[in-house]
Amino acid sequence: MRGSPGIVITVSGLEDGVSAEKFFENRGISKRTLKAFGVTHGIKTFSDGEKRDCVIFNYGDNRYKARSIVGREWTQSPGGVQNFYNLENVLGGSLDAVFITEGEIDALSLCEAGLPYDSILSVKGGAPSQESEEPHRNTGYQHVLDALKRGLHTVERFVLLTDNDAPGRALRADLAKLLGPAKCWYVDWPEGIKDANELLCAKGSLSSYVHAEQKIWPVEGLFALDSLPEPTAFVRWEPGFGDKLAFSPGTVSVVSGQPNHGKSHLMAQIWFQIAQRYSINVCIAGFETRAKPHLRRYFRSFYTNKLEKDISSDEVALADQFINNHYTFVVHPQLRPSLDWCLDTFEVAVVRHNARVVQIDPWNKLESDRGELSETDYVGVCLDKLADFARDLSCHVQIVAHPSKRGHYESRKAPPELEDIHGSKNWDNRPDLGLVIWRPAMYDEGQRQTDCELYVRKSRYEELGYPCKMDLFYDLKCGNFIAR
User: CA angle 366-387-264, nearest 5°?
Assistant: First the structure.
């Protein structure tokens, strides 16, 4: 075995100093290990001015830490120590795996148990009272950063062997952040054992335990397949036009289509049918289609399967009762709503009125507060907010948005894509569902045409459908869309 440059590797005084020899004998540490680490025995002056017999842990460059043989008092060289204990030996070693302890005696214990002396470090000071949010800014860890610059960054695996108490666990967490969690493993000591030396003194197989009980440092958000929790099954709300499309709480959908192609009307019917079928409540922020009289007219027709002019007063009463029980409507006092205002209002609708669906129709009626953000970035931020809202409150969020006035809007020769929505490619990237409503022809030789195509442009989850086209037509006799 070899000592690092500047470290005394003799045990001068230990042979004659029975108390020092007994000190280490009681802790299971042999002279062989003391020699490997350059531990000496001497007399040092402590903070109270008294000189005491002590054991000296040499850190190189004439720096040391000393512990009194009687009692548990510590002193150190002027200016303290500036690096890990045993760093020079470790930097000269293989650097395959490095074991880090909370104290010098624990480091000696690992060597005594058979771990290579040039693979063992101890932090230069004790443990903090609590974990640091930014240990890189903690001056007490400067020795860790310095060691990484000197070559410790090339270590393949760090095994953290700190004490089994709250400060030890805080130190362990800080070291993992500093050294890089991807390279860190750790060991929890057995019940009733505080540290490596206690396990050594308890005649436990310290080396075998350290090798067998290493656990990989957990990284938030990274799992093996068998440790992933099973996701909650999707709640499917089918709108009544077959099983090609379903909505679910916790997700976001966007709907687009040319003006006057019936997207607000068709989506009103879809949510009405879902509200009836699954007995859920819906909150609508409709800024172009008024709740009275327009949405009310739609809902009465959906409820009775009749045009409003053909509905009896009794049927009107039943339809309106259903509407009151299952719908709330958002109206901004100054008709200038912002997204944040809508979300605050939607939260009340979800919590107080048990709304499971919230809808913004149309998106362009919201007041923009994007500041210096580009429109693309602003749309992305908004859609992230809406997705968080849907997940946090377990509701479905839907945005109805017009395509831009470029491309398809001008030609009207083909149904638009989601990326044609004014503002951003994010309309295609971010939502979970993307729908487009298209009327192939509005009139033919002066006759009103009622064919309607509902395109599922995107479905992030196969449980909610797949890209397809559904053929519908608008029944002029009853005011409802019907699947062909």
Answer: 50
Please tell me the predicted confidence (pLDDT) of residue 478: 95
Cα angle value 221/148/81 (rounded, 5°): 120
Say if residues 88 and 42 touch (Cβ distance below 8 Å).
no
Encoded tokens for 464: 């909610």
Q: What value, to the nearest 5°, has the Cα angle with vertex 378 and ends 376 and 381?
A: 110
Q: How far is CA 127 from CA 124, 136, 177, in A?
A: 10, 15, 15
Measure the CA–CA gap between 367 and 257, rounded to whole angstroms. Answer: 21
Which 3 state secondary structure label does DSSP give 396? Answer: strand
369: helix, strand or coil: coil
Residue 399's identity, in one-letter code, is: I
> Would you say 274 and 357 are in contact if contact means Cβ atoms under 8 Å apart?
yes
| Radius of gyration from C-alpha coordinates of the chain | 36
CA 91 – CA 126 distance, rounded (Å): 22
The number of C-alpha atoms within 13 Å of 12 and in the hemisphere containing its C-beta is 5
Q: How far apart are CA 458 and CA 11, in angstroms?
A: 75
Residue 211 CB partners (closer than 8 Å, separation 6+): none
Residue with tokens 């849907």: 390
This prediction has a pTM of 0.65
Q: Are 82 and 124 in contact (CB under 8 A)?
A: yes
The C-alpha atoms of residue 199 and residue 109 are separated, in whole angstroms, by 9
Dist CA 111 CA 35 (whole Å): 11
User: Chunked in runs of 10, what are the mean pLDDT values of the chain (484 residues)?
Assistant: 35 46 90 93 91 93 92 90 95 97 97 96 91 92 96 97 95 96 95 96 91 92 81 90 93 94 95 97 93 95 96 97 97 90 96 97 89 90 96 96 68 83 89 96 88 96 94 95 93
**Among all chains, which residue has been given the structure tokens 């709503």?**
337
pLDDT value for 395: 97
Residue 327's nearest CA partner among 290, 291, 283, 294 is 283
Residue type, 457: R
Give the largest CA-CA distance in the chain.
Answer: 117
Q: Are 449 and 439 in contact (CB under 8 A)?
A: yes
* 8 A C-beta contact, residue 170 and residue 110: no
pLDDT score at 6: 34
Across the strands, what pairs with 101? 122, 161
pLDDT at residue 148, rounded to an integer: 97
Q: Report pLDDT digits (tens) over 57-108.
A: 999 889 999 999 988 899 999 988 999 999 999 999 999 999 999 999 999 9
Residue 405: the pLDDT is: 67
3-state secondary structure of 150: helix
Q: Is there a contact between 39 and 10 (Cβ–Cβ < 8 Å)?
A: no
How many residues does this entry show for the chain? 484
